[in-house]
Amino acid sequence: QGTLDDYVYLEHGAHYAIGALAVILMVTIQYQINEIITGLVGVVLIGWSFWSSVRRNNALAAAEDRQRTDSVPVP
After folding, report:
1. Contact 16, 45 (CB under 8 A)
2. Where are the domains of the chain?
3. What are phi and psi of 59, to 5 degrees?
4. pTM higher than 0.90 for the full model?
5. Each residue of 10-61: pLDDT tens digit?
6. DSSP state letters, 2-38
């Protein structure tokens, strides 16, 4: 449906979250890590990537608006 086209950083954020969770899994071999911390790491990384995608989309829309208004001839 084009979701990953609209939110270009979302896929990268999911990959980073999977990587971070893998590292946490390895660390839990030696140390006890709270499940809340584990869950928050994934949520924060995916949320950050979503927020970055929204900011990028807003910046591109603003740039297109500026370009449109700059190209309109003044009477």
Report:
1. yes
2. 3-64
3. -65, -40
4. no
5. 999 999 999 999 999 999 999 999 999 999 999 999 999 999 999 999 999 9
6. -HHHHSTTHHHHHHHHHHHHHHHHHHTTTS---HHHH
